[in-house]
Amino acid sequence: MWHGPGGRGNYSRGEKVESSSVPQRGKYDQFICPGRVARGRGVAKVRFVTCPSLIVTTSFDPPHAGAQKQMAKILVSSFLRTFFGGQVLVFRNGTPLFLVPRVAVTELEVDESALPTTDGDWLGPALFVLAGAIPAAEHDKVLLLPPGAMAVRNVDHLLEGDWDLGFAKVGGSHGTDQPLGGVYAIRGSCFSAVMARWSELHWAAAPGLRLEEAWFSLLRSGEFKTRAFERGEVMHPVTATPNFLDYREAALLSVNAGSDTARAELMFGLFMRTFFWEPTGSFFHALEI
Q1: Which of 49, 47, 73 is closest to 59 using CA atoms?
Q2: What's the pTM?
Q3: Which among 74, 198, 263, 264 would be 20 to 30 A from 149, CA to CA?
Q4: 255 with 271: CB under 8 angstroms?
Protein backbone atom coordinates (compact mmCIF):
# COMPACT_ATOMS: atom_id res chain seq x y z
CA MET A 1 0.00 0.00 0.00
CA TRP A 2 1.30 3.44 -0.88
CA HIS A 3 1.61 6.00 1.91
CA GLY A 4 2.13 9.21 -0.05
CA PRO A 5 5.13 11.41 -0.78
CA GLY A 6 7.88 11.04 1.75
CA GLY A 7 6.30 7.88 3.19
CA ARG A 8 6.92 4.24 2.42
CA GLY A 9 6.98 3.21 -1.21
CA ASN A 10 8.05 0.39 -3.46
CA TYR A 11 11.42 1.91 -4.25
CA SER A 12 13.79 4.53 -2.93
CA ARG A 13 16.00 7.17 -4.48
CA GLY A 14 18.33 5.71 -7.10
CA GLU A 15 17.16 2.12 -6.56
CA LYS A 16 16.90 -0.11 -9.61
CA VAL A 17 13.71 -2.15 -9.42
CA GLU A 18 13.59 -5.19 -11.66
CA SER A 19 10.29 -6.53 -12.93
CA SER A 20 8.88 -7.84 -16.18
CA SER A 21 5.31 -6.84 -15.40
CA VAL A 22 5.36 -3.09 -16.09
CA PRO A 23 5.85 -1.58 -18.54
CA GLN A 24 4.91 -4.43 -20.84
CA ARG A 25 7.80 -5.26 -23.13
CA GLY A 26 7.82 -6.59 -26.65
CA LYS A 27 4.47 -5.32 -27.84
CA TYR A 28 5.29 -1.72 -26.96
CA ASP A 29 9.01 -1.65 -27.70
CA GLN A 30 8.30 0.33 -30.86
CA PHE A 31 7.73 3.49 -28.85
CA ILE A 32 9.23 2.95 -25.37
CA CYS A 33 12.93 3.74 -25.72
CA PRO A 34 15.12 0.87 -24.42
CA GLY A 35 16.73 1.66 -21.09
CA ARG A 36 14.89 4.95 -20.78
CA VAL A 37 12.50 4.28 -17.92
CA ALA A 38 13.74 7.07 -15.71
CA ARG A 39 13.18 8.49 -12.26
CA GLY A 40 15.37 11.54 -12.02
CA ARG A 41 18.97 10.37 -12.03
CA GLY A 42 18.01 6.69 -11.91
CA VAL A 43 17.21 4.39 -14.80
CA ALA A 44 15.15 1.33 -14.01
CA LYS A 45 12.57 -1.19 -15.01
CA VAL A 46 9.63 -0.19 -12.90
CA ARG A 47 7.47 -2.28 -10.62
CA PHE A 48 4.17 -0.73 -9.52
CA VAL A 49 2.57 -1.89 -6.31
CA THR A 50 -1.20 -2.20 -6.19
CA CYS A 51 -2.42 1.15 -4.92
CA PRO A 52 -5.57 3.23 -5.16
CA SER A 53 -4.86 5.44 -8.15
CA LEU A 54 -2.54 6.28 -11.00
CA ILE A 55 -2.16 9.68 -12.65
CA VAL A 56 -1.01 9.58 -16.28
CA THR A 57 0.18 12.59 -18.24
CA THR A 58 2.46 13.40 -21.17
CA SER A 59 5.22 15.83 -22.12
CA PHE A 60 5.97 15.95 -25.86
CA ASP A 61 7.67 19.23 -26.69
CA PRO A 62 8.72 20.04 -30.25
CA PRO A 63 12.44 20.78 -30.77
CA HIS A 64 13.77 23.83 -28.92
CA ALA A 65 10.59 24.21 -26.86
CA GLY A 66 9.89 23.48 -23.20
CA ALA A 67 6.34 24.52 -22.34
CA GLN A 68 4.95 20.98 -22.12
CA LYS A 69 7.81 19.88 -19.91
CA GLN A 70 7.15 22.79 -17.59
CA MET A 71 3.43 22.00 -17.45
CA ALA A 72 4.10 18.32 -16.78
CA LYS A 73 6.52 19.24 -13.99
CA ILE A 74 3.93 21.58 -12.47
CA LEU A 75 1.33 18.81 -12.65
CA VAL A 76 3.55 16.22 -10.97
CA SER A 77 4.82 18.62 -8.30
CA SER A 78 1.30 19.75 -7.45
CA PHE A 79 0.15 16.19 -6.81
CA LEU A 80 3.17 15.45 -4.63
CA ARG A 81 2.75 18.68 -2.68
CA THR A 82 -0.90 17.82 -1.98
CA PHE A 83 0.02 14.31 -0.78
CA PHE A 84 -1.63 12.33 -3.54
CA GLY A 85 -2.04 8.74 -2.33
CA GLY A 86 -1.17 6.98 -5.58
CA GLN A 87 1.52 7.10 -8.24
CA VAL A 88 2.26 9.20 -11.32
CA LEU A 89 3.33 8.02 -14.77
CA VAL A 90 4.68 10.46 -17.37
CA PHE A 91 5.22 9.64 -21.05
CA ARG A 92 7.77 12.11 -22.38
CA ASN A 93 10.40 12.95 -24.94
CA GLY A 94 13.66 14.73 -24.25
CA THR A 95 15.35 14.94 -20.88
CA PRO A 96 13.81 13.83 -17.55
CA LEU A 97 11.46 16.20 -15.80
CA PHE A 98 13.33 15.88 -12.51
CA LEU A 99 17.07 15.54 -11.96
CA VAL A 100 16.38 14.62 -8.33
CA PRO A 101 14.21 11.47 -8.13
CA ARG A 102 10.63 11.79 -6.89
CA VAL A 103 9.18 8.82 -5.04
CA ALA A 104 6.07 7.42 -6.75
CA VAL A 105 6.87 9.16 -10.05
CA THR A 106 7.88 7.19 -13.15
CA GLU A 107 8.93 8.67 -16.50
CA LEU A 108 8.91 6.69 -19.74
CA GLU A 109 10.80 8.18 -22.67
CA VAL A 110 8.84 7.68 -25.88
CA ASP A 111 9.96 7.53 -29.49
CA GLU A 112 7.35 9.82 -31.02
CA SER A 113 8.18 8.73 -34.56
CA ALA A 114 6.53 5.38 -33.80
CA LEU A 115 3.27 7.02 -32.68
CA PRO A 116 0.35 8.13 -34.84
CA THR A 117 0.29 11.85 -35.49
CA THR A 118 -1.91 13.93 -33.23
CA ASP A 119 -4.51 16.24 -34.72
CA GLY A 120 -4.38 19.11 -32.26
CA ASP A 121 -6.47 16.90 -29.99
CA TRP A 122 -4.10 16.37 -27.02
CA LEU A 123 -2.64 13.03 -28.14
CA GLY A 124 -5.51 12.04 -30.40
CA PRO A 125 -5.03 8.46 -31.65
CA ALA A 126 -1.60 8.27 -29.98
CA LEU A 127 -3.42 8.12 -26.62
CA PHE A 128 -4.85 4.73 -27.51
CA VAL A 129 -1.42 3.41 -28.47
CA LEU A 130 0.20 4.60 -25.25
CA ALA A 131 -2.71 3.17 -23.24
CA GLY A 132 -1.34 -0.33 -23.80
CA ALA A 133 1.71 0.52 -21.67
CA ILE A 134 -0.32 1.85 -18.73
CA PRO A 135 -0.45 -0.67 -15.85
CA ALA A 136 -4.12 0.07 -15.19
CA ALA A 137 -4.99 -3.37 -13.77
CA GLU A 138 -2.67 -2.73 -10.82
CA HIS A 139 -4.65 0.34 -9.75
CA ASP A 140 -8.19 1.00 -8.66
CA LYS A 141 -8.56 4.12 -10.80
CA VAL A 142 -6.55 5.76 -13.59
CA LEU A 143 -6.77 9.52 -14.16
CA LEU A 144 -5.63 10.69 -17.60
CA LEU A 145 -4.64 14.36 -17.58
CA PRO A 146 -3.24 16.42 -20.47
CA PRO A 147 -0.46 18.90 -19.71
CA GLY A 148 -2.03 21.96 -18.14
CA ALA A 149 -3.66 20.23 -15.17
CA MET A 150 -2.78 20.90 -11.55
CA ALA A 151 -3.90 19.75 -8.10
CA VAL A 152 -4.82 22.61 -5.78
CA ARG A 153 -5.51 20.24 -2.89
CA ASN A 154 -5.64 16.49 -2.41
CA VAL A 155 -7.76 14.69 -5.03
CA ASP A 156 -7.91 11.19 -3.55
CA HIS A 157 -11.59 11.62 -2.67
CA LEU A 158 -12.46 12.21 -6.33
CA LEU A 159 -11.23 8.75 -7.26
CA GLU A 160 -13.09 6.81 -4.58
CA GLY A 161 -16.32 4.89 -5.14
CA ASP A 162 -17.90 2.20 -7.28
CA TRP A 163 -17.85 3.55 -10.84
CA ASP A 164 -16.16 2.93 -14.19
CA LEU A 165 -15.96 6.45 -15.67
CA GLY A 166 -15.54 9.62 -13.65
CA PHE A 167 -16.11 13.02 -15.20
CA ALA A 168 -16.44 16.68 -14.30
CA LYS A 169 -19.34 19.03 -14.96
CA VAL A 170 -19.19 22.75 -15.62
CA GLY A 171 -18.93 24.26 -12.15
CA GLY A 172 -18.69 27.65 -10.56
CA SER A 173 -21.21 30.45 -10.45
CA HIS A 174 -22.75 29.40 -13.77
CA GLY A 175 -22.56 25.64 -13.37
CA THR A 176 -24.51 23.30 -15.65
CA ASP A 177 -24.92 19.56 -16.14
CA GLN A 178 -22.74 19.69 -19.24
CA PRO A 179 -19.72 17.37 -18.90
CA LEU A 180 -16.22 18.75 -19.31
CA GLY A 181 -13.36 17.24 -21.26
CA GLY A 182 -9.71 17.24 -20.32
CA VAL A 183 -10.14 15.09 -17.18
CA TYR A 184 -10.64 11.38 -17.84
CA ALA A 185 -11.02 8.99 -14.87
CA ILE A 186 -11.35 5.26 -15.55
CA ARG A 187 -11.62 2.18 -13.32
CA GLY A 188 -8.46 0.14 -13.64
CA SER A 189 -10.17 -3.24 -14.02
CA CYS A 190 -12.12 -2.14 -17.11
CA PHE A 191 -9.47 0.23 -18.51
CA SER A 192 -8.71 -1.90 -21.58
CA ALA A 193 -12.39 -2.24 -22.49
CA VAL A 194 -12.98 1.47 -22.02
CA MET A 195 -10.00 2.45 -24.17
CA ALA A 196 -11.05 0.05 -26.94
CA ARG A 197 -14.58 1.48 -27.02
CA TRP A 198 -13.32 5.07 -26.71
CA SER A 199 -11.02 4.47 -29.67
CA GLU A 200 -13.93 3.22 -31.79
CA LEU A 201 -16.00 6.29 -30.93
CA HIS A 202 -13.03 8.57 -31.55
CA TRP A 203 -12.66 7.42 -35.13
CA ALA A 204 -16.39 7.80 -35.68
CA ALA A 205 -16.60 11.31 -34.22
CA ALA A 206 -16.77 14.49 -36.27
CA PRO A 207 -13.59 16.54 -36.82
CA GLY A 208 -12.65 19.05 -34.18
CA LEU A 209 -12.49 18.11 -30.50
CA ARG A 210 -12.73 14.45 -31.41
CA LEU A 211 -11.17 13.00 -28.27
CA GLU A 212 -13.57 14.93 -26.04
CA GLU A 213 -16.59 14.27 -28.26
CA ALA A 214 -15.85 10.55 -28.21
CA TRP A 215 -15.53 10.71 -24.42
CA PHE A 216 -18.90 12.43 -24.14
CA SER A 217 -20.43 9.74 -26.37
CA LEU A 218 -18.92 7.09 -24.14
CA LEU A 219 -20.48 8.70 -21.07
CA ARG A 220 -23.90 8.80 -22.74
CA SER A 221 -23.74 5.25 -24.07
CA GLY A 222 -24.73 3.56 -20.81
CA GLU A 223 -22.11 0.84 -21.41
CA PHE A 224 -20.18 1.78 -18.28
CA LYS A 225 -21.12 2.96 -14.81
CA THR A 226 -20.49 6.72 -14.63
CA ARG A 227 -20.12 9.21 -11.84
CA ALA A 228 -19.91 12.99 -11.94
CA PHE A 229 -17.40 14.56 -9.60
CA GLU A 230 -18.87 16.87 -6.99
CA ARG A 231 -19.60 20.21 -8.61
CA GLY A 232 -16.82 22.72 -8.13
CA GLU A 233 -14.10 20.14 -7.41
CA VAL A 234 -12.76 20.13 -10.99
CA MET A 235 -12.54 23.44 -12.84
CA HIS A 236 -11.36 24.75 -16.22
CA PRO A 237 -10.12 28.29 -15.43
CA VAL A 238 -10.17 29.53 -19.04
CA THR A 239 -12.98 27.87 -20.96
CA ALA A 240 -15.65 26.95 -18.42
CA THR A 241 -14.84 28.74 -15.15
CA PRO A 242 -13.29 32.15 -15.80
CA ASN A 243 -14.15 33.44 -12.33
CA PHE A 244 -11.07 33.25 -10.08
CA LEU A 245 -13.24 33.26 -6.94
CA ASP A 246 -14.75 29.97 -8.15
CA TYR A 247 -11.76 28.02 -9.33
CA ARG A 248 -9.45 29.01 -6.46
CA GLU A 249 -11.55 26.66 -4.30
CA ALA A 250 -11.35 23.65 -6.64
CA ALA A 251 -9.37 20.49 -5.95
CA LEU A 252 -8.19 20.05 -9.55
CA LEU A 253 -7.66 22.58 -12.34
CA SER A 254 -7.32 21.85 -16.05
CA VAL A 255 -6.36 24.53 -18.57
CA ASN A 256 -7.23 23.09 -21.98
CA ALA A 257 -7.27 26.14 -24.24
CA GLY A 258 -4.57 28.31 -25.74
CA SER A 259 -1.05 27.64 -26.97
CA ASP A 260 1.38 25.55 -24.94
CA THR A 261 3.27 28.71 -23.97
CA ALA A 262 0.13 30.55 -22.86
CA ARG A 263 -1.05 27.58 -20.80
CA ALA A 264 2.39 27.16 -19.22
CA GLU A 265 2.41 30.84 -18.22
CA LEU A 266 -1.00 30.52 -16.56
CA MET A 267 -0.11 27.24 -14.84
CA PHE A 268 3.09 28.78 -13.47
CA GLY A 269 1.11 31.63 -11.93
CA LEU A 270 -1.49 29.27 -10.45
CA PHE A 271 1.21 26.99 -9.06
CA MET A 272 3.08 29.82 -7.37
CA ARG A 273 -0.14 31.25 -5.93
CA THR A 274 -1.24 27.86 -4.62
CA PHE A 275 1.98 26.74 -2.97
CA PHE A 276 4.02 29.86 -2.25
CA TRP A 277 1.58 32.63 -1.43
CA GLU A 278 1.08 33.43 2.26
CA PRO A 279 -0.56 36.42 3.95
CA THR A 280 2.62 38.06 5.23
CA GLY A 281 4.22 38.06 1.77
CA SER A 282 7.56 36.78 3.11
CA PHE A 283 8.47 34.95 -0.08
CA PHE A 284 7.64 37.95 -2.24
CA HIS A 285 9.54 40.32 0.03
CA ALA A 286 12.58 38.01 -0.11
CA LEU A 287 12.51 38.26 -3.90
CA GLU A 288 11.93 42.00 -3.94
CA ILE A 289 14.25 43.25 -1.20
Answers
A1: 73
A2: 0.80
A3: 198
A4: no
